[in-house]
Design brief:
Radius of gyration: 25 Å
CATH class of the largest domain: Alpha Beta
CATH topology of the largest domain: Rossmann fold
Order of helices and strands: EHEHEHEHEHEHEHEHEEEEE
Strand order of the largest sheet: 2-1-3-4
Helix content: 25-40%
Structural class: alpha/beta
Number of domains: 2
Strand content: 15-25%
Length: 412
């Protein structure tokens, strides 16, 4: 059977972002030579998702694997793309298997760490030097989904702890809080002489440029602090490898989204009214419309000027109170939801080799710690077998940031 893969992007008014996504799709195609790989966008750019699916079907695909080109699963990955794919499959008699978002992943974190180190090295830092005088601020897109927002905080924490920064904070480019300006103004008050601002974004665009512009504005108000602008992720080789992993997850049947904290399935604090909303896309009216290729208000880099000059999409009256779609700064609330069809087969098994207690043997008076190996679900047994008369304490690897100035010793 023909192997067909469809990469589904968000799309952007920004030609640079569209070009970068296409470049990522080409890298993925080269990485998977035995697959027919195509791509398309949800909105603002061409080809649209249906175009890519049409091409794959034209090449003979009856079964297509589809991946969201998204860092985290919020409305686009959970609602809009599945809606487009489901509609297409029903209308064209093809089977589409949908994979999960890139998510929190060790490869993605390594790619992020590489980008952060790039700007530090350019500032004179050398590998191995402590970063206790430096603060990390990770900027996420920001979504109306608290699960996606909290994922950015987890990424920030893993980068903060992994690289050993003095402090770490998270802020967002839009939709939620804290936004970049207030977030960086807050960061500037914490006393660090160098602040790394890292946009956790796949591609360029108006939002990434806005993050860098706001960094410059806050930096101008704090000349005593060095603000470093780290590059965004882009088509790093480890990003490509993560997409390959997501493809294999579909084939293995292990591609579960995190549905335990999903506002469409469970009563998430503050979002209780959104449980069980119908799955539908609000992007059908902007498919392929309004990319910078069709726009004469700015050159190749989108400035957002289109939002200051209202223009209705063909065949649509502008919505009341609707800010134009400049990378999604909507003036109205698209509170569409969906019913998930994800099976939550999250079985966590920890079979312990012993019950974890020490057993007393009166014959020799020794307290023997038997091998308490935690036998994990992945089949690896980790244990420490101690011989008689020796130190029975567990020996851990030294913590890499044991000398952190805000670490445990600061509590003594």
């Amino acid at each position: 059977m023909m192997k067909a893969l469809m990469l589904c992007g968000h799309g952007s008014r920004d030609q640079g972002a569209v070009r970068e996504f296409a470049g990522l799709a080409e890298k993925l195609k080269a990485r998977l030579p035995d697959w027919h790989t195509d791509y398309g966008y949800l909105e603002f750019a061409k080809p649209i998702i249906r175009d890519g699916l049409d091409r794959l079907r034209g090449e003979g695909a009856g079964e297509i694997l589809a991946l969201p080109g998204m860092l985290f699963a919020a409305g686009h990955a959970k609602n809009d793309i599945p809606s487009v794919l489901n509609t297409y499959a029903a209308e064209n008699g093809v089977t589409i298997h949908y994979g999960r978002e890139l998510g929190i992943d060790l490869k993605m974190l390594r790619a992020a760490g590489a980008r952060i180190k790039e700007c530090l090295v350019a500032d004179g830092w050398q590998e191995g030097e402590p970063l206790h005088d430096t603060m990390l601020v990770v900027v996420g897109r920001g979504a109306s989904d608290p699960d996606a927002n909290s994922n950015v905080s987890k990424v920030m924490r893993m980068l903060w702890e992994g690289l050993g920064f003095g402090w770490g904070e998270t802020c967002y480019s839009g939709v939620t809080f804290p936004l970049v300006g207030p977030g960086l103004s807050h960061a500037a008050r914490l006393g660090y002489k160098r602040i790394v601002v890292f946009p956790y974004f796949l591609f360029t665009g108006i939002l990434v440029r806005r993050i860098y512009d706001q960094t410059d504005a806050v930096a101008a108000d704090h000349p005593d602090i060095r603000f470093l602008k780290a590059p965004y992720l882009g088509a790093h080789d480890l990003v490509v490898e993560t997409f390959v992993d997501r493809l294999h997850e579909i084939l293995e049947g292990t591609n579960n989204m995190n549905c335990q904290l999903c506002k469409y399935r469970e009563q998430v604090l503050g979002f209780e009214a959104e449980v069980g909303l119908a799955q539908e896309s609000h992007h059908h009216h902007v498919e392929g419309i309004g990319s910078s290729a069709d726009c004469d208000l700015c050159d190749t880099a989108c400035t957002g000027a289109c939002r200051a000059k209202p223009a209705a999409a063909p065949g649509h009256a502008p919505h009341a109170g609707h800010a134009q779609h400049g990378d999604h700064e909507h003036g109205h609330d698209h509170s569409h939801g969906h019913a998930h069809g994800h099976g939550d087969a999250h079985g966590h098994g920890h079979g312990h080799g012993q019950d974890g207690h020490h057993h007393h043997h009166g014959a020799d008076g020794h307290d023997h710690a038997h091998d308490h190996g935690h036998s994990h679900a992945d089949g690896h047994a980790h244990g420490h077998a101690h011989s008689q008369g020796h130190d029975h304490g567990h020996h851990h690897h030294p913590y890499p940031h044991a000398d952190h100035p805000l670490g445990p010793r600061s509590m003594r």
